[in-house]
């Protein structure tokens, strides 16, 4: 799946249910934050080692994958409402990051 | 760009800079939350109407697009570290949502 | 209740349950973010008018109050772990804000 | 400082600047999330040990304290707008937690 296809499917899904009226920029941004909170819940009390161990179990891995997907879904819908081409935005941001942090010059 | 290509480019970018050691699950999840906070800043004091008006200006639109891209970038890197196929996760989540909210049965 | 009393009670509560080992700075900051996500859930699809109407119902008001309290609880525990006096921090921040935004000079 | 005093000072501060019109429930909740994002930024790439070391330096400690204060400030203003008594909400939540996690019965 690419970003265009994801956007198309999400908008179609939403319009088939008459939900567009709820999809204001603020509501969608809040929704992304709600889902990110649910994602963080999986990392709340566990160490990085425990998390990496836990995702070997498929149920846990799927639960975390679902939360990541939910955030991406709301961000895609938000981008759609604002007329933002997410694929293009990612290209541009990666390029900007490349200029900001040239290889071999980083403080690392 | 599709999700596989995005993941490949981000991992390559990171490894060229020796940043993998910082990319623990908790750090990446926190990073996604930091960027989402920066995205929310654009919606803090403006109404939905004002936001939709503001993105007609290309600088504002690009600033918001950059923040959305940053969240997606960190989520893609997080999925990578956890062995999650983001494209597959999105497919599965859309399918789950379709079963949870069948067309014509929603309360809307 | 003042901030010192809140801190004292929360630390006592935690220590009586042997939870200190989980209360690292990152875990407590993540926990505050998780609870803030739950707070945002109450504002996800409703307009400001609907929210103000909904809190007239005591169950809804208590549910939101619980989430606000949860965030404040985790922030108080985080401040405790970092040796931060929250009451003093609030005094200083209000004073800084007063210098930053003098009355009668704001753009409003 | 106690919660009543904090609330009184923040409302006075805001009203002196004519900012009440911006203080809708959604805007204040988003603002709390923005500030929590800024707090998380301090924990983004550092380990717990590094954070505890860093706050020994007073500038870093004050920077983190400022962000914690900012979140508490917006939550207090949100509680005010919703008619929630934050001190009472904290009392009730601590009591609920005590019933939910009785001493000596926790799984720890």
From TrEMBL, chains A, B, C, D:
GO biological process: one example: dCTP catabolic process
GO molecular function, one term: dCTP diphosphatase activity
Protein name in UniProt: Nucleotide pyrophosphohydrolase
SUPFAM superfamilies: all-alpha NTP pyrophosphatases (SSF101386)
CDD domains: NTP-PPase_RS21-C6_like
Presence of keyword Hydrolase: yes
Pfam family, one: MazG-like
GO cellular component entries: cytosol
Upper classification of the organism: Archaea, Methanobacteriati, Methanobacteriota, Thermococci, Thermococcales
């Amino acid at each position: 799946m690419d970003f265009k296809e994801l956007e198309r499917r999400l908008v179609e899904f939403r319009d088939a249910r008459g939900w567009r009226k709820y999809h204001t920029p603020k509501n969608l941004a809040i929704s992304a934050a709600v889902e990110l909170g649910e994602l963080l819940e999986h990392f709340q009390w566990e160490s990085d080692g425990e998390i990496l161990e836990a995702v070997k179990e498929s149920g846990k891995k799927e639960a975390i994958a679902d939360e990541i997907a939910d955030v991406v879904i709301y961000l895609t819908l938000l981008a759609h409402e604002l007329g933002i081409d997410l694929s293009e935005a990612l290209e541009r941001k990666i390029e900007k990051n490349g200029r900001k942090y040239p290889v071999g010059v980083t403080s690392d």
